[in-house]
Amino acid sequence: MPTALEDRILQERARMRGSEAALRQRVEQFSRGPKTKSALMKTLDYESTGHLDFSLFACPPVLESGKGAKLRDVDGNEYIDLHAGFTVNVLGHGNDEVNGAMKVQMDKLNHFAELPMEARAELARLLCERHPGDFAKKIMWAVTGGEAVEIAMKLARWYTGKPIIITHWGDYHGRTAGAMALTAKAFMMAYSFPVPPADTAVARIPFPYCYRCPYGKEYPSCNMFCADQVDRMFESKETWFNNPKAKVTNVAAFLVEPFQSSAGYILAPLPYMKRLQELAEKYDFLFISDEVQSGMGRTGRMWAIEHSGVAPDLITTAKSLCNGLPLAAVTGRKEILDSWGPGAHSSTFTAYPTACAGGVKVMEILERDHVIQSAAEKGRHFLAGLQDLAGRHPSIGEASGLGLYLAIELVKDRTTKEPADDATAWASMELLNEGILCISSGYFFNRLCFAPPLVIEISEIDQALAILDRVLTRMEAKFGIGAGK
Ligand SMILES: Cc1ncc(COP(=O)(O)O)c(C=O)c1O
């Protein structure tokens, strides 16, 4: 006998609700000093339990300052930053050059809503020039990554005159209404439960997560079976994507993360996105790469999609654009960006001068100091270190990475791949206690993700790997992983 609807909804809501009392208990148990404890208690006095912080860590640190890839909390505890504030701090904390450029602009003119400015035009030029592809490009500004995704959705539908946007299960595109409809994750239930997002013209295909292939295949012997399946959805009448007889498509765009970031830094096999782009071309709709987290040099190329040899029609970008202030953009084909008229989209804080001045300096430093090439090299070093750990730690089912975009997947048993979710949560708190700030994620809550500022030193990577080694050893002993093998 199913529980009565009203009881069921109440019980389920109660299970999803953060209890302030439980969070206070965590602070009592885990906080790393008196000032941290006091700041967290004050936070809980006034801030909604809906914030992300207590879902990232059993007890989050209260940060006070940072320099490069080092952070310090209010009690003086130091951390190596393997998170970069979800990849915002691309050039590290307290970057004097970027901050200096922003201060100069701030003193001249900090903000005036929605009017062109010199720094904004210059950053537009720089970003358009870095958008891959041999075609004319333009930009549309936004404030947040979610808003950039909204613009891309609006533009794709406006330009093509078609409704459907196809994305992957497990993708994360933001929490505004349209972007949320493209985002499929368990924790998003808190935004929609029990009524899902209202955009009915969003469709999803499985992401090629090869370690746990949704089709049970092995890469590369699968011959990209997953891409063939997508092709079939267009060639057959099993979906509403396309009418093969009439040769009419109903799709505006693939809007996808080239690699899945919030899902746990999961790499797609590089040829896969090229296959999707070929389908978009064949059926005459757009390919949009959401690089809000993976772009701006993070993977060792300016844009993650460049690894697959794809020049997307549109790219959405945000986080790293100016090393710390809110700024976002959609770049892409001129004819798409110029297909609508003045005022088709706007936002009060769009491309304000201080953020743009910071962005211009970020672009200059990326180029001048060969930051992206060096991120690729440091990434190879980091990945080799993780693979070495995988050779010694039975809990590591997979170690993967491209540039400074890396992850390990923790399992109870390498053969069954049973996710070590509790162990992962424990390890992420232990890492914090040992001075490593990184987050855990994963479809099954069992991936540790590493995304340091691109300016991290090799010695800091080595230090982080040594700490990770110790924490994994203790984790395996505590959770009995690899025992008896
Ligand atoms: C790929 C991707 N798209 C969009 C967003 C949303 O960006 P914002 O939080 O700035 O709205 C994020 C944020 O994590 C993201 O990772």
Architecture blueprint of SSEs:
Blueprint: H1 5-16, H2 20-30, H3 34-46, H4 53-56, E1 63-67, E2 70-73, E3 78-81, H5 84-87, H6 96-108, H7 118-130, E4 137-142, H8 145-160, E5 164-168, H9 177-181, H10 189-192, E6 202-205, H11 225-235, E7 242-243, E8 248-249, E9 251-256, H12 270-282, E10 286-290, E11 314-317, E12 328-333, H13 334-337, H14 353-368, H15 371-392, E13 396-402, E14 405-413, E15 418-419, H16 421-433, E16 436-437, E17 439-441, E18 447-450, H17 458-479
Parallel strand pairs: 3-16, 5-6, 5-9, 9-10, 10-11
Antiparallel strand pairs: 1-2, 2-3, 4-12, 7-8, 11-12, 13-14, 14-15, 14-18, 17-18
Helix pairs in contact: 2-3, 6-14, 7-14, 11-12, 15-17, 16-17
The chain binds pyridoxal-5'-phosphate.
Pyridoxal-5'-phosphate binds next to helix 8.
Description of the molecule:
The structure is a single chain. The chain has 17 helices and 18 strands. The chain has a seven-stranded mixed sheet with strand order 4-12-11-10-9-5-6, sandwiched between helices. Strands 13, 14, 15, 17 and 18 form a five-stranded antiparallel sheet that branches. A four-stranded mixed sheet has the order 1-2-3-16. It has helices spanning 5-16, 20-30, 34-46, 53-56, 84-87, 96-108, 118-130, 145-160, 177-181, 189-192, 225-235, 270-282, 334-337, 353-368, 371-392, 421-433, 458-479; strands spanning 63-67, 70-73, 78-81, 137-142, 164-168, 202-205, 242-243, 248-249, 251-256, 286-290, 314-317, 328-333, 396-402, 405-413, 418-419, 436-437, 439-441, 447-450. The protein is 40% helix and 16% strand. The longest helix is centred in the last third of the chain and has 22 residues, at 371-392. Strand 17 (439-441) and strand 18 (447-450) form a beta hairpin. The chain is α/β, with parallel strands linked by helices and 485 residues long. The chain is globular.
